Amino acid sequence: MTYTKSILNAARDVGVIQADLPEEIAPDHIRMRLATASICGTDMHYFRHFANAGFFLDYPVTLGHEACGYVENANGHDFPEGALVAINPVIQCGECDACLRGDINMCPTKRFPGSATTKPHIDGFFRDRFDFPARCCRVVKQGVRPEHLTFAEPLACAMHSVNRGGVTKGDKVLITGCGPMGLLATIGAAAKGAEVHVTDLKPEAIEAAKAVGASAGWVIGKDDMSGLANQYDVVIEASGSPHAYNQALDAVRKQGTVAILSLIQPSEVPVNLHVTALKEIKTIGSILFTHEFDDAVTLIESGTVDFDAIIGGRFPVSDTQAACDFMADGKAVGKVLIQPEG
Ligand SMILES: [Zn+2]
Ligand SMILES: [Zn+2]
User: Fold this and answer.
1) How far is the CA of 62 from the centre of ligand 1 (A)?
2) Which CATH number goes with the domain that contains 294?
3) Which among 50, 96, 143, 152 would be 20 to 30 A from 112, CA to CA?
4) Ligand nearest to the CA of 155
5) Which one of the ligands is nearest to 99 CA?
6) Confidence of residue 48 (pLDDT cuts 50, 70, 90)
7) Is 0.90 surpassed by the pTM of this model?
8) To 5 degrees, how large is the angle CA 317–CA 66–CA 86?
9) Band of pLDDT at residue 32, cut at 50, 70 and 90
10) pLDDT at site 54
C-alpha cells in the first residue's frame, strides 16, 4: 500500500512522493494515518536553510513534529482501532537521570522526528501514514477535533515557559510577540488565571491574541508603549527578536521574571544586560516541555479554548511546499495546518 509523503529535498524545495509502507511495524510502534499536523517555527528554519540553530540535515527528510493521528494498526498495543491519539514527539530514552526525574526535555539521547539533531534522522509527520512509538501516543476523549489536538506539542512548549516563568493566578503577564508560540503562551498564561497583555508588529496578531485570552495589546512602532515599563510580574519573550528582549527587560517589574520561549537568533543588537542587575531580574530559559504535554492535551480536551481563532491556513500533504511558502511570506497569523489527502 502506498501513501502520500512530503520530503524536504533542499532549502525551499519540498517534493511529494507516493511512498511504500514498510510491511513490518517495529514492535514498540503503532501505525497511524494522519489526522492533522501543523507547521512549527523549527520546520520553517529547516525549510529556509536546510538547518536549524546551526544543525544541518544530512539528507532529505519529512518535516513535522506536531500532529495527531488515527490508529490504523495497534500492533498488539492497547489502542482501539480508529481512535484519535495525541502524539508526543519527544522519544525519550526513559532510563537516564533526566528521564527518571521527569525532565524528558533534558534527555541527552532523546530522539525527535524531522530534526537534524537526531541521527539518523527520523521522518516527521507531513505525510499520510506513519509509525511511531506507542508510549508516545495517548488516546483522547471523544469529540476532540484533530485541528485542535495537533496543537498539543506547541501548546505544551508554551505552557512549559509559563511554568518556568512561575506564572500564577492574578499575575500580570506580558507576552512579546504574537506568532504561533506567543498566541499559545497567551492561552497557557490565561489558563493559569493571569492577566495577559501582548505586543506585536501586526494588528491582526494582537486581535488573535485577544480572541484567546489577552486583555490588552500594543502594536510595536504604532502605539505608545512608554506606560509598560516596570509593570509586569512575568514577561514571556516569544518573538525571537533581541529588541523584544530589551523590551522585556524594560517591562518586567523589579525582581520579576523574564522567561525566554523563543530562540533569539545571534545578532549585532546590543542587549541591555545591566538592567538585569539593576532590577534584579530573573531570566529563565525554556525548551520543549515535561509534564506539560499531558496538561496541554487535557486543556484541549476541556473544549474551553477557541483554537479556531489561531488557525492561519489549511493545506493538504501534497501542498506542503505551498504551506511552507505561505508561512515564509509572513502573511499567516496563527498556525498553518497540514491535512490528509482527501
Ligand atoms: Zn513545534
Ligand atoms: Zn533519557
Assistant:
1) 14
2) 3.90.180.10
3) 143
4) 1
5) 2
6) very high
7) yes
8) 110
9) very high
10) 87
Ligand 1 geometric centre to CA of 153 (Å):
6
Count the domains in the chain.
Answer: 2
Please write the tens of the pLDDT for every residue from 50-75.
999 889 999 999 999 999 999 999 99
Q: Which helix (H) or strand (E) holds 156?
A: helix 152-164
Answer yes or no: are the C-beta atoms of 188 and 195 closer than 8 Å: no
Per-residue pLDDT at 223 exceeds 90: yes
For residue 95, which ligand has an atom nearest its CA?
A: 2
Q: How large a percentage of the chain has pLDDT more than 70?
A: 100
**Paired strand residues for 86:** 68, 138
In the reported structure, the alpha carbon of residue 2 is separated from the centroid of ligand 1 by a whole-number distance in angstroms of: 27
Distance CA 297, CA 5 (A): 26
pLDDT band at 332 (very low <50, low <70, confident <90, very high): confident
Q: Pick the ligand that lies closest to the CA of residue 125.
A: 1
CA of 149 to the centre of ligand 1 (A): 13
Residue 279 sits in a domain of what CATH number?
Answer: 3.40.50.720
State mean pLDDT over 145-167: 98
What's residue 253's pLDDT? 98
Range of the domain at 133: 2-154+289-339
Using the mean position of ligand 1's atoms as its centre, give its distance from the Cα of residue 223 in Å: 30
144 φ/ψ sector (left φ>0, alpha ψ -120 to 50, else beta): beta
Question: Cα(216) to centroid of ligand 1, in Å?
Answer: 26
Ligand 1 midpoint to CA 230 (Å): 31
Report the C-alpha dihedral over residues 114, 117, 121, 122, rounded to 10 degrees.
Answer: -50
